[in-house]
Fold this protein.
Amino acid sequence: MSVRSRSNTDPRLADPVYLAQFEAERAGVLRRRMVWCLYILLALLGVSFLGGYNTYLDYTAGRVSAPSLVFLLVQDIALTALTIAALVYLLADRPDRRRLVRGITAFTIVALAIAVYFETRENLIDPNARTADDGGGAADPRVVAMRMALYSMLMLVWLPLVLIPMRLAESVRIVIGCAAVYAIIVLTVAGPPAGAWAAHAAAAILVPLVPMAYSHWRYLRFDAQFQHKDLAGRFEELSAELMQARKLHEALFPAPVTDGPVRFAYAYEPMREIGGDFLFVHPAEPTAHDRARFMVLVDVSGHGVAAALAVHRLHDELRRVFAAVDGPSHEQGGAAEERSVRDIIADLNRYVHVALAPQAVFATAMCVRIGPTGAGGWNIDWCNAGHPPSALRSGETGGDRATIRWLEPTATMLGVLEPDLYDPASRSMAMVAGDRLVAFTDGLIETRDGRGEMFGIERVRDTIARAAGRLGPGALCDALILAAAAHRAGRATDDVLVVDVEVGIADRPDARFETRPEQREPVTTRDRSRRNRG
């Protein structure tokens, strides 16, 4: 079976790069094995020359005839010359895999023809080569000649089949060719009885079946090893590419902010190397006390590279959208409120519907704006497009009885409705210093245990109520992800992103958050997740 015909059923061989590497690797293996085969044959011919010397001594003692000695010497010289020529061809020309297979086939058949011809003639001429049959009578010299020639044939055929891994089709060509040459030569030279000739010809075909099977097994083993090596190499390349892609993907995330009136941190744990959750913050650097901060939390449908590509496109679109916020009016003293959270979600829906929905890519999003009210307090505006509700924990009440309000969805997910039909709503809520907003993607609440029970909103609420008074923003994000991981049975099935935002005193430009001893972050061992702590 040729490589071209296999490529119709084997998708690996439809890859020209894989095919070229496979051909080159197999050619190298065949060359090395054929060189060893020729070296072994030369060693055997050396033994044969030593036997020829003993035959010469027998000739000088009158025990063998001159023609027998001549046939033996001519056979060894011809085989040696053929073997040396093959070695020179292999080492100097370094043929490719197809030429090499043809060369192995041709060399084996030609070498066998030489050996069978001279072996048959020698045993027909030398009467001492005749042996007694089982009945004690003289054996037919023609049958003896066939038998001795068959031994030579099997040695020459077995040698390449045992040493060189070949496909069945390749080994079958060698065996059939050698058996045909054997049958023709012994029939022409020895003229044996029909029954004996047919039996020996059948043996010439059937006896090499065992080394044929071994040679094919060696080929399958080589094929499997090459596949493993190829897959390992591709995996290393893919891993390196994914590591680079992860660096580029994580570069989209903002740095945590630990100073100023609004600080935030987050923890991100993708299901794979990269994922479809991300956070966009504007402005990304610490804000002035009189300026609002926008945050957009997005969860793209799907996982892995495809979702990450959609994230990059959405990130660029958000940069374009917020470029309008920092437009000329803002530079001239205008307010950033010109673009509302409702407008931003509407713009995102338009983009997802036009650019991503045709590829069946959709997204949920949570857009919040946290801005000062002018009286030392804060106001939070939000528009939730099919995203899980976010928790707003009051900083005024501590302990497990802390007040938690939920920022519920106000619109459908992005990309499902046409822009003209999409009418997102926004909501507002007051905040005071110490309040904390905890937003997350659905990978957190949809984490399931061995019984299929989800982690759920209530467990999120309980964790926030217990931990928010003790832990800083970064540590609280870690606590939520660790709680979900403890609940999860098996591997993660979705990306998880948790964001924690805390507000201070709005009219203090240098407002800093002093971390109380009970808010110091615990040491965790979650090395796989991306941790950005305030």
Remarks:
- The chain has two domains: 3-235, 252-532.
- Residues 252-532 form a domain with the Phosphatase 2c; domain 1 fold (CATH 3.60.40.10).
- Residues 1-9, 129-137, 329-337, 510-534 have pLDDT under 50 and may be disordered.
- The longest strand covers residues 363-372.
